[in-house]
Amino acid sequence: MRNAIGGLMALVVFIAPLAGIAAPPPQEHSQSLQEVKTLTAEQLVAAVMIRNPGLQGLAAAAEAANYRIAPAGALDDPMLTYAGAPKTAGGPRGFQERVELSQSLPWPGKRGLREDAARARAEGREQSLADGRLALMAAAKRLFAEWAYIHRTLKIKHAHRDLLTELRRVAETQYTVGRGRQQDVLQAEVEAARIEADIVTHQRRRSEVQAMINGLLNRPPQSPLPPPASLPAPADPPTLRILHEVALEKHPELRRIQARIAEANAQHSLAEKEYFPDFKLSAGYNALWDSPDKRWVVGLSINLPIDFSGKRSALRDAAEADVMRYQWQLSDRQAQLLAQLEQGRVRVQERQEIVAIHQQKLVPLAEESLNAAVADYRAGQGSFLTIIDAERQQLRTQDKLARAHADYIRALADLERTTGRSLGDGDRLTGTGPAPTNIPVQSFGQE
């Protein structure tokens, strides 16, 4: 449990740039969250997507990048030049002046390539936004799993505290009729006190998780949260082939690198076109000429792209190196994702099998063991210490089931993060199904 909380702390610190500190969002969102009776993972994710200011910042950055596409391919502003000859003022021909209007024209194709580079940058920003959504979704689902586990384990602790109260009554009854010892009563009180201490610890951890969830929601740390809905039953993850296909096609991190490759290719093509001249068309009127026929002029200027310093070849080589860099980066990230998908799917399957073993075998066996220990004690054939051991075993087994179920949700959230999209049905992470970790309320009072 300590490692789980520590891992969530590290995750929230990593996500902190996305959370930021901002003014509270509109009141209607806060009210809608507070009106929820039981919180589901999907509801928490939806609230985080609405309220998180860092995500809004990424959206604004993507919007700004899209606005820069059109200016990148636009012509430079035309230039209007005016000049006058001060000493001609008052002369026989009056004040002499010159006016010129000019327009720069890049070599054909340069404007389109600049626009392509800007469009690729905008696509990269869009994929950064999508990746930010994925990161927040995974963080929200992991915290939801921890929120559900904390509530479940507290319910287990309270149930066993009540159970020990009843066991204490059984011990008192046996002691009264001379078939038990006073030490049995004291042992039950000790176990109840130990569980009370565990409850205090879990309540502190509940406050920690609550603060982390409110951090993602951009709310004060102690803002109230609804109790969690029951976790959905574990299900088989998609096949590895499907995960590979989805990740390689849809993962925003890969698409962001592909956008960088497209931008680098556009920059490389633009660097090659720098070997060709740009033009400037001009037209003007120059009153300094005596003959009126010479006063109207038109002109064409070009730059001479002579690469004496090697700057153009250096820019071209740098752009080519950038293309290779991003291509290698793409290949490396694809290989890492495929390996992570294998690991993540195995973890999901492992948690699924552990939950099934606890539900089908360990929890029923622990309950039967406790019932048998109590029956033997009442018949004067067993010791109270055996009951306490059986109670401890049942407590550990139920808690491990709750932990394994939450770890399954966490592992599934990590697998979705690696795949690049949600893997479940609409209700897979909503917790609409029955709780698989129901705790039988046993009564061992005197018949």
Automatic annotation (TrEMBL):
SUPFAM superfamilies for this protein: Outer membrane efflux proteins (OEP) (SSF56954)
Region feature (Disordered): 420-447
Annotated transmembrane regions: none
Record bears the keyword Coiled coil: no
Signal sequence coordinates: 1-22
Pfam family name, one: OEP
InterPro entries to which the protein is assigned, alphabetical: MdtP/NodT-like (IPR010131), OMP_efflux (IPR003423)
Keyword list, A-Z: Signal
Family: Belongs to the outer membrane factor (OMF) (TC 1.B.17) family.
Protein name: Outer membrane efflux protein
